[in-house]
Design goal:
The protein is of the alpha+beta class. It is 19% helix and 31% strand. It contains 2 helices and 10 strands; from the N terminus they run ααββββββββββ. The strands form 2 sheets. The chain has a 5-stranded antiparallel beta sheet with strand order 5-6-1-8-9, with no helix packed on it. A 5-stranded antiparallel beta sheet has the order 4-3-2-7-10, with no helix packed on it. The longest helix is centred in the first third of the chain and has 26 residues, at 2-27. The N and C termini lie far apart (110 Å).
Length: 183
């Protein structure tokens, strides 16, 4: 009988050891990193480890959109221009601003042009300024709306109903060169 008690005791001890091992594994956070475990061991008193910030990766952001409609059959050629602090520009079919894109130059009775910044991060957005240009002979009136985002993340908008030829400037921190819109 004492031999049976020894076998039963050994089985109970083995079962308890297995249960403790399984319970310890189940309570560990799935995918816990070695750095987090090291932090817990190192600072087991009142000190806490700082959480690592996620990498601030730029994601494409639409920084400006120009839309227009004159309600008629006239062929309207509005142009959205964008300027950066290094003197680069995008608009009227060209884009020399690094890590950005602008829709192709478009004309028609209604349309839109959009500028996308692939370098925008809330912590380090670049200064951009914007312009709207329209050059036409005659007296075609074409209302437009521009929506743009400045480096501080604020969304701005403006609507105008100007006459024949015009240009409007929307400063956002980068210099706007004179003469970008030929009259």
């Amino acid at each position: 009988m004492s031999q049976n008690k020894g076998i039963i005791a050994a089985c109970i001890i083995a079962a308890l050891a297995l249960a403790i091992t399984i319970a310890g594994t189940a309570t560990a956070a799935p995918g816990a990193s070695k750095a987090a475990k090291k932090c817990k061991k190192k600072h087991s008193t009142k000190k806490k480890c700082k959480k690592r910030k996620a990498d601030a990766r730029p994601s494409p952001v639409i920084r400006a959109t120009l839309t227009w409609s004159n309600g008629g059959a006239d062929d309207v050629d509005m142009d959205l221009f964008v300027f950066d602090a290094d003197g680069n520009r995008a608009g009227n079919g060209s884009d020399t601003i690094p890590l950005s894109s602008i829709t192709p130059d478009f004309s028609g009775p209604a349309g839109s042009e959009t500028f996308t910044d692939s370098l925008f991060t809330p912590q380090a957005a670049r200064d951009l300024s914007f312009g709207v240009c329209y050059t036409v002979g005659g007296s075609v009136h074409t209302p437009f709306t521009i929506t743009y985002v400045t480096a501080d993340g604020v969304v701005h908008g403006d609507s105008q109903n100007p006459g024949s030829s015009f240009h409007y400037d929307y400063p956002g921190g980068a210099p706007i060169p004179s003469g970008y819109c030929p009259h």
